[in-house]
Design brief:
The chain is mainly alpha-helical and about 475 residues long. About 70% of the residues lie in helices and about 5% in strands. It folds into three domains: about 1-60; about 65-340, no CATH class; about 370-475, Serine Threonine Protein Phosphatase 5, Tetratricopeptide repeat (Alpha Horseshoe).
Length: about 475
């Protein structure tokens, strides 16, 4: 009831804002109609922006929830998965599921939207390919039951209602910000109302999640439902912390672009540790959380915390078979379309830098410039710590830019030895003053030396001013 009242309150605020915009337009129209010169003059300047703002405010209140992005799985291709979903749906008495959408994210959700030019709502179950390649069949059954529980009763309609009112506020603010026409009172209402809506909706969401957990336990068993919660969390972390970082640097080791989703067919995202498990269960539920903590969910399921057992075969492989590989290939193609050119460019740059570094490595008597360039390449390819020795060597031989680079590396790790190197670089090359002062000011700020930081900032400003004046003096 509390959330219902907050949602209604939000719509009243939105209606009030739209009414104010409409009233302003009506006032301007009346001024023109009655031939009031002052109002007519104001209308010339503000009528068009006000009309656009009014239209934006009205559109923010009326929009369609779009279909989720992903691959629509045809029934002819995923018949076994549709049969599993239908079996679970009947057991829990959920409404019919119209489609299944496969995405590349480690997620699962129940989405209700209205297709264009249609009045009937469409229900789709969203399953990430990484979920299908990580969970066991029993765990996937629990996840499907959990998500379909959100379709049951009035929950999906109410959740959509809450989503719409939040979306309306953010759409309104974004539209007005683009036109630089957001009134102060709109910002005030957003700052006061939206946090209250978030808090009220988070409380209701947590209750719905616990209800969905009970539904999942009734269908797949409480142990499978509990294991699915852990595997979902650890699998998502494996994807974010291990799998995708490797894809991002794959251009350093492979001559051909990766197939990130095909790689998920054989990955071991279930692997976890007792330390990670302790970390996951250390969190307690807070009022801002939209989901209860794992500890609370396990308590409600009356299951002990444990490391999930290995799965001999993933749910996706068991249900979809060869179709799972086709879905992975389609997602790979989409990834290549979005990232293929950037990957090829990074690969070419990496090969070029590596070849240049190999050439410098063979020099028997490198110059200070060679040492600095070698350090710069090593920093790009391997990191600043590996490059420091070469920067220091070039700095010892009088290379100003190398002294600044070495000073920067030392200052970034809060080593005061970098101060002398930065100062030396400025003494050797006056053009390095702004950059060196920036590094020094940041170091002094981090070490609570505000006065020293201010001196560096003023020195950089004076240098830029002199350089600008000198440039202007050279112009004819």
């Amino acid at each position: 009831m509390k959330l219902l009242l907050v949602v209604i309150e939000g719509y009243l605020y939105l209606a009030g804002i739209v009414a104010i915009f409409v009233a302003q337009l009506a006032f301007l129209s009346w001024g023109l109609w009655s031939r009031r010169p002052i109002i007519g003059l104001v209308t010339v300047f503000v009528a068009v922006p006000l009309i656009k703002s009014t239209v934006s405010a009205i559109r923010a209140c009326f929009f369609r929830i779009r279909a989720p992005e992903g691959l629509r799985l045809a029934r002819s291709d995923g018949g076994a998965l549709y049969d599993l979903v239908e079996d679970v749906r009947r057991k829990i008495g959920a409404p019919a599921v119209d489609s299944i959408t496969i995405t590349g994210a480690f997620n699962a959700s129940a989405v209700v939207f209205t297709p264009p030019r249609r009045l009937r709502r469409h229900r789709t179950l969203v399953l990430g390919l990484p979920v299908l390649t990580t969970l066991s069949l029993a765990e996937l059954r629990a996840v499907i039951a959990h998500e379909l529980a959100h379709f049951s009763g009035a929950h999906d309609a109410f959740a959509a209602w809450v989503y719409r009112v939040r979306r309306s506020w953010f759409t309104l603010q974004a539209a007005l910000d683009r036109r630089m026409a957001t009134p102060v009172y709109v910002y005030s209402i957003i700052g006061w109302y939206v946090p209250r809506l978030d808090a009220a909706s988070a409380e209701v969401n947590r209750r719905h999640e616990l209800v969905a957990d009970r539904v999942a336990a009734s269908v797949a068993g409480s142990r499978a439902a509990a294991d699915a919660l852990v595997v979902f969390e650890t699998g998502a972390r494996f994807a974010d912390d291990t799998h995708w970082p490797k894809i991002q640097i794959s251009h350093e080791a492979a001559a051909e672009p990766p197939r990130p989703y095909s790689g998920m067919l054989t990955w071991n995202a279930r692997a976890t540790s007792a330390d990670l498990l302790d970390e996951l269960f250390a969190h307690e539920t807070t009022p801002e959380d939209t989901h209860p903590s794992l500890r609370e969910r396990f308590t409600r399921l009356e299951e002990e915390v444990r490391l999930p057992p290995p799965a001999t075969r993933s749910a996706g492989a068991e249900i979809l078979g060869a179709e799972l590989e086709k879905l992975a290939a389609q997602l790979d193609h989409g990834w290549m379309t979005r990232n293929g050119d950037a990957w090829s460019r990074h690969r070419a740059e990496y090969v070029e830098r590596r070849a240049a570094l190999d050439r410098l490595t063979t020099l028997e008597a490198p110059t200070p410039d060679d040492l600095f360039t070698r350090g710069d390449l090593i920093e790009t390819l391997e990191g600043p710590e590996q490059a420091l020795a070469f920067y220091l060597s070039a700095a010892d031989r009088g290379h100003a830019a190398a002294a600044l680079a070495a000073g920067r590396v030392l200052l970034e790790r809060m080593d005061s030895k970098g101060i002398a190197l930065a100062e030396d670089s400025m003494a050797r090359d006056d053009s390095l003053v702004p950059e060196a002062c920036g590094f020094l000011a940041e170091y002094y700020t981090e070490t609570n030396q505000a006065l020293a930081a201010q001196k560096c900032e003023r020195r950089a400003i004076r240098h830029r001013t002199r350089a600008r004046l000198a440039l202007q003096a050279q112009k004819p």
